[in-house]
């Protein structure tokens, strides 16, 4: 029973580490914010250039950047959910392994 408990705790720590590492290594949130900032800057330029032929072109570029930001943000949310799920499963394995390691062995039946 002790070997099983230790194995579960090791798997739990690995799961927590993998979930955390995946979250830390994902650049999707950074790209999401960059696309949003660029879209806002383009929209601001389009408003300033209102009445000129360039205004519609800037607004189209802004819309394109907004769509890219939406897709990237959705991807970042999906990655975050996966990371939390993996880390949560690792935490559950860690707790189960810890509880099993603390259990006292059942006394032998009286004959």
Distance between the termini: 24 Å
H/E topology pattern: HHH
Number of helices, counting only DSSP H or I runs of 4 residues or more = 3
The beta-strand count equals 0
- Overall number of structural domains: 1
Q: Report strand %.
A: under 5%
What average pLDDT do the residues reach?
89
**Fraction of helical residues:** over 70%
> Sheet with the most strands?
none
Any low-confidence stretches, pLDDT <50, length ≥5? none
Radius of gyration: 26 Å
Q: Which class best fits the helix and strand makeup? A: mainly alpha
Shape: rod-shaped
Topology:
Blueprint: H1 2-25, H2 28-48, H3 53-102
Helix pairs in contact: 1-3, 2-3
Structure description:
This protein has helices spanning 2-25, 28-48, 53-102. It has 111 residues and is mostly helical. It has one domain (2-102). Helix 1 (2-25) runs antiparallel to helix 3 (53-102) and helix 2 runs antiparallel to helix 3. The model has no long low-confidence stretch (mean pLDDT 89).
Question: In a few lines, what is going on in this structure?
Answer:
With 111 residues, this protein is mostly helical. The protein contains 3 helices and no strands. The protein has one domain (2-102).
Keywords:
3 helices, 0% strand
